[in-house]
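queue> holo job accepted (2-(butylsulfanyl)adenosine)
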Amino acid sequence: MDLFSEIENPEREELRALRKELEEANYKYYVLNMPTLSDREFDEKMHRLQELEALYPDMFDPKSPTQHVGSDLVESRKTKDKSGKTFETVKHKYPMLSLANSYSREEIEDWVRKLPSDVEIVCELKYDGLSISLWYENGQLVRALTRGDGQQGDDVIANIKTIPSIPWQVAGAPAHFEMRGEVLLPWERFEALNKEREEQEEPLFANPRNAASGTLKLQDPREVARRGLEAYLYYMLGENLPAKTHYDRLMSAKQWGFHISDAIKVCKNVDEVMEYIAYWDTERKNLPVATDGIVLKVNNLAQQEELGYTAKTPRWAIAYKFPAERQLTLLKEITYQVGRTGVITPVANLEPVQLSGTIVQRATLHNEDFIRQLDIRPGDRVWVEKGGEIIPKITGKEESTPNPSLKEREDYSFPTHCPECGAELVRVEGEAAWRCPNESGCPPQIKGKIEHFVSRKAMNIDGLGEETIDLLYKQGLLKNIADIYSLRTEDIAAQERLGEKSAQNILAGIEASKQVPWSRVLFALGIRMVGETTAKKIARVFNSIDTLQWATHDELCAIEDVGPQIADNIIAYFNDIRNLEILERLREAGLQLALSEEEKNSQSISNALQGLSIVISGTFEHHSRDEYKGMIEAHGGKNVGSVSKKTSFILAGENMGPEKRKKAEELGIPLKAEEEFLEMIQ
Ligand code: IVH
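queue> job finished
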């Protein structure tokens, strides 16, 4: 092949372009946690590249994305935190491969039929998180490596140790072995985390996988613990391990205390495999974690060895990927939504389309940059997807359907003024969002601030929902948060669908909110970027509104988690006379605008154990049981008396009660020794 014909050949050009595109997509997915292609697009492009490489073997390149797995290794310049810490990169004992995959059930059937006829196939769920490799030496967990580039990974053991279902030590297991599995952020945790990030105006995670990946690369294990990761293990490796089949190995692992999925099934023929796929295709929607397919593995380890490996994948396994839930539909119009903090979100108004059980007519277009990058305009046919998120999103447009000629397509420009109040929009440098600056005069911002103020984690005023706020706002009874404390029973009872009874309930809630502690009042004020945790930290240093009001920029920046931007926002808040008037009225109403004696003495030091239910059993060397109880609560955990499937772990001392031990074994609840526990809370 001479040089000239090579340049001429469009397929060769395509091959090169695909390599470049997939390399970039890998980087964005694994390192930046900001996927640009949907899984399906990625897989389709990868298959096309494989096809082209088979056609042009002279273009073989060991560095091609078809020959290696994407890398999640964080270059040290990116991971270094303020203290300069970073993760240690360690070579894998066995390379961490990926799996061949297919979206076609026919291909899966073919794959099974081509195997020797006596073969047993283990079917498992394909968990959609990130893979982890755990090394155990003499019963102790000594390393926890990310997949990295498949050859070497980052050791994230401190973060992994915060996952309650991962044992730090195991009894009865071989001296050296490796367990592999998937780290996940359960749906519930993912949604709570995103909600919190939204409140704190931090960028949202696109899906639980990205959230889990971002979490595992944090430098603060306490924050990792607070987020509540989970893990499922699905692969054991090592020399001279006991069992002869994959299934038996997993069952032994289960006995040693590893979290192994109950959904694993040994299938004897292709029909059983297809039945498993059909069952989980719908049933997976009820699981607490994300799955994106089914993994089929040859059960017998000797047969696995015979089948062997390609450069990137084992030949003894394959993944069936569930079809992505997406639809192509017409983009009729783009409208704009104004959030509590004034952020303008472009919304796609669609020709209604059926998507995983519901009809979708609206989807987010994220921000102006997204629209420009994809060159999306009304009249285009766009892909709408319901990932993990509650809100459907546009993921791309159909290039192949002929668009009206460029001239006929509507010119697109992002609005310059707020669609709700008409104020001129501003865009803060470095941010993707446009914002309406008219904080106290823009209706959705006013209502949003009131909704935030009454929300559960803030003042927790039950019964005052979005609709009621809207009604009261329209009647001029509720124009800011201070107006809440001037509401009368008859104002509320006069509203449609609200009677005397609900009015009294709401008023009781308003009354009770006067006891809400200072740190939560501070959070409730809705100062930009002052989230729940930051508010707590600020309230501890500035223990009343009067001292906070006069805080200088430097003093504020000295507080953990408070940067120059947050300091600016706090100062701006107190410089606005309207806010001072509101605060005065809140003071008159009797809200807690200073740290109470009780709060001053409270020991709540961290959130390291947030969301965890912990049982204490046995006697201890370093502290008394009561002290441990206090520590659990001080770090945000809950001390419970009896073991149930909701128990996160047991803080186990000497002579642990036999009943509790038995129950823990039955339910697979891990035990933690007091040293482990103390390390967890540092
Ligand atoms: S087995 C050599 N089993 O899928 C085979 N992988 O696309 C090792 N995954 O990197 C993998 N659930 O992160 C296996 N039940 C399961 C899985 C699973 C999810 C992930 C894993 C792997 C990726 C391959």
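queue> The chain has 27 helices and 22 strands.
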